Amino acid sequence: MISFNEARSIIKNLTIETKQEEITLADACGRVLAENVVSDIDMPPYDKAAMDGYACRLSDIDKTLKVIEEIPAGYEPVKQIEQGHCSKIMTGAMVPEGADCVIMKEDIELVSDSNIKVLTYKSKSNICLKGEDVKRNDILLNRGVFIKPRHIAILASAGYSKVKVYKDPLVGVLSTGNELVEPDKKPDRSGIRNSNGWQLLAQAKEIVNDVRYFGIAKDDVNDLYSRIKLATEETDLVIISGGVSVGDYDFVPQIIEELGYDSLIKGVMVKPGKRIIVARKGDKFIVGTPGNPVSAYIQFILLIKPLIYRFLKTSDEEQIISMPVDRSFKRKGGKRTEFYPVVVTNGKVDFVDYNGSANIQAYAMANAFIEIPQGTVEINKGEKVDVRFI
Ligand code: AMP
Ligand code: MG
User: Fold this and answer.
1) Which of 156, 216, 288, 387 is deepest in the core (most CB within 10 A)?
2) Are 131 and 197 in contact (CB under 8 A)?
3) Is the C-alpha dihedral spanning 350, 354, 358, 364 positive or negative?
4) Is the minimum distance from the CB of 293 to ligand 1 under 6 angstroms?
5) Is 291 a pocket residue for ligand 1 (Cβ < 6 Å)?
6) Which one of 3.90.79.10, 3.90.105.10, 3.30.460.10, 3.40.50.150 gives the CATH number of domain 20-43+146-166?
7) Which of 180, 199, 275, 276 is the pocket-test mutation for ligand 1 (most atoms within 8 Å of CB)?
8) In this structure, which CATH number among 3.40.980.10, 3.30.565.10, 3.90.1150.10, 3.40.50.720 belongs to the domain 4-16+168-311?
9) CB of residue 181 inside a 6 A radius of ligand 1
């Protein structure tokens, strides 16, 4: 069985053929850029007033100045500032030729209808210079950026009403298990509600638009085979929960092989989620995660999300922050890399009560989880751990 780090590098080094499409700016948030974004203009595009006030010459500020023009935003001044002159100017408007400063409105006195005197000068020009933020032809965003709202503003400012993005892979989710019932049913004495299916759908939907649900398959070779086959035909990545272990009814691994998929990962030294399988056939993938809800949840974050990111060719990296624990912690064993729910408040990491991989309810309290490395059995108060926020 491979280590967690080996599994991660297998996923991170995958290359997957992905198509591109052009979409409108309104649909771009949450997609991944497939082109570099280049500005077709300088920003600001002209010397721009940063304040409401009066544009004049710095060498004139001890004189009474004649107001020769009023310049609102969006208006191109027609008068040049000569000695002893100024123009009234609004924030965002174009600074007239000849002016080298804008005196704030609050810092002048109106001497008459068309004359002002500067009361104080605070040594700032209050002019944003043409091109000081961006020069024409500058690259503002690189291919691979996961587009967030702030990137939308940058795209809009650079004139991108349409943008090239990578096509989302189609993701399918299938739950397996004779014991499973859907959430609207009360399970009988030997039943369990299907929580993974809905959890995995939600996790996938945070990344891609097209997620399809293939229901619950029985622990029956024929039912499993036909459902998995259908899911692989209709999607690019099938996420299956349950049935990957070594029990008598765990048929998923054999079916993955029967369908001609090669296992890239078959078991990882992690807790929870040891029996995870990642298999590939051309540019299609199947991931089988163990059925316990925390295993499915954590393994989605640790391995499945990075796999979807390879489809999307994004450079977005997960954030892992090293932080000290607020309480000592011991565990048994220590052969596997373990992921444990914590709650981080004001920079302090505390462990939440957690009974193991079936106990997804523990994650109601958690806002992060920590990584306990292979071999570590004890963490002392104050020692730093790797924290992933959720
Ligand atoms: P398995 O990996 O199929 O051996 O399942 C391990 C445990 O996870 C069992 O207790 C299952 O009942 C439970 N389990 C499997 N699938 C799900 C699911 N979709 N939702 C909630 N629990 C599940
Ligand atoms: Mg099962």
Assistant:
1) 288
2) no
3) negative
4) yes
5) yes
6) 3.90.105.10
7) 180
8) 3.40.980.10
9) no
The CA distances from residue 284 to 62, 172, 234, 307, in Å, are 74, 11, 10, 11
Parse the chain into domains and list their residue ranges: 4-16+168-311, 20-43+146-166, 48-128, 320-389
Q: Per CATH, is 48-128 categorized as 2.170.190.11? A: yes
pLDDT tens by residue, 30-52 = 999 999 999 999 999 999 999 99
- In the block, residue with structure tokens 């940058």: 154
Q: What share of the chain is helix, strand, coil (3-state, %, to 5)?
A: 20, 35, 45
Residue 59 DSSP class: G
Cβ atoms of 262 and 280 within 8 Å: the answer is yes
pLDDT for residue 317? 86
CA distance linking residue 311 with residue 237, whole number of Å: 10
pLDDT confidence bin for 316, thresholds 50/70/90: confident
Classify residue 20 by burial, with Cβ atoms within 10 Å: 0-12, 13-18, 19+. Answer: middle
Ligand 1 atom closest to residue 176's alpha carbon, by position in its atom list: 16
Q: With 90 as the cut, is the pLDDT of residue 257 above it?
A: yes
**Same CATH fold assignment for domains 20-43+146-166 and 48-128:** no
